Amino acid sequence: MSEDRKIRCAVVGLSARSPFGRAKPVVEQPNTELVAVCDVLEAPAREVGEEYEIPWYTDYEQMLAQDDIEMVFIATPDALHAPQTIAALESGIHVLCEKPMAISMDEVHAMLAAEEKSGCKLGINQVLRTNPRIVEAKRLADSGYFGELFYGEADYVHNISSLIRSGWRGDKEQGHTPFVGGGCHMIDLLRWCMGEVVEIHAYGSKKCLTDDEYPFVDCAISTLKFESGACGKFGVTYGCQRPSFRNFMLYGTEATYLSGRDCDRIRINDHLDDIIKVELPVKGHPYGPVIRGFAQAVIDDTAPPISGRDVANTIAIALAGDESIATGRPVKPERFAF
């Protein structure tokens, strides 16, 4: 394929707060061309469409009928991910879907079946896999630098109560539980670095949001058993009174990786002054590498770097955690080969 090949990409779901948040990274990649945008709200769709001089839509099906679209980036509310993904795949369009991949296992199976039947590609925007600090942690883990990993810890600490009260995340039909909604970021990183989870046991509490505001627990915590024999902890809190923070730690027999706000750290023994700082950029959500990687997979006809079958395991763990909270019992998540 030519090095200057560009995949013609559409974006659906622009956000009234930040209408250029997904569209601009598409424009900025060397292998993608933005050819259409869509949102149910006319104002952001028109604004982005007119800025880039491309067709804009308020009807998703009408956008899919535009005959030059090769790829769509879906960034709509969670409950729309599966039906919109399936519709695009059935139209012969490759799909990069925002996390969470889906809100039920039935949806996961339907999306994977649609991908297989269509011959198109499905990728998921688990964007934190492209965070430079996490990329370095993954590289070190794979190289054996930490020794054998025996414990992993990940927490999504983020007060999104204002978003819940003012938007779609508080609707039960959206399925935006702590584990599925924000937590899928962190459980995805744990399994990416430590391998697959074979059992999860979770508990939840609700002290920060009312039932009318949010129909799920607003704090969820779990213990994990990995296929390797390692164990882990995974938690989410949506109503905490502190700045947002993504806690990520990998404990190995030779070294430990510890996340931090200003820099991440690596400790190689129990002395306080024996530390290596990992001072790499961390701010924001680096959508560009995910978009670029997925588009290149389409060009080269290779598997997406973050594929649907891969991330199906992430959602299976999150949903198993929700089941564990509901039943009070440990749950074995469904597994998908990829």
**Element order: H for helix, E for strand:** EHEHEHEHEHEHEHHEEEEEEEHH
Given the C-alpha coordinates, what overall shape results? globular
What would CATH call the class of the largest domain? Answer: Alpha Beta
Name the poorly predicted regions: none
Name the CATH superfamily assignment of the largest domain.
Dihydrodipicolinate Reductase, domain 2
Q: If you had to describe this structure to a student in words, what would you say it looks like?
A:
- The chain is an alpha/beta fold and about 350 residues long.
- It has two domains: about 5-130 and about 285-305, Rossmann fold; about 130-280 and about 315-325, Dihydrodipicolinate Reductase, domain 2.
- It has an eight-stranded mixed beta sheet with strand order 8-9-10-7-11-12-13-14. A six-stranded parallel beta sheet has the order 3-2-1-4-5-6.
- It is about 35% helix and about 25% strand.
- It has ten helices and 14 strands.
- The model has no long low-confidence stretch (mean pLDDT about 95).
- The protein has helices at about 25-30, 40-50, 60-65, 80-90, 105-120, 130-145, 160-165, 185-195, 285-300, 310-325; strands spanning about 5-10, 30-40, 55, 70-75, 95-100, 120-125, 150-155, 195-205, 220-225, 230-235, 245-250, 255-260, 265, 275-280.
- α2 links the parallel β2 and β3.
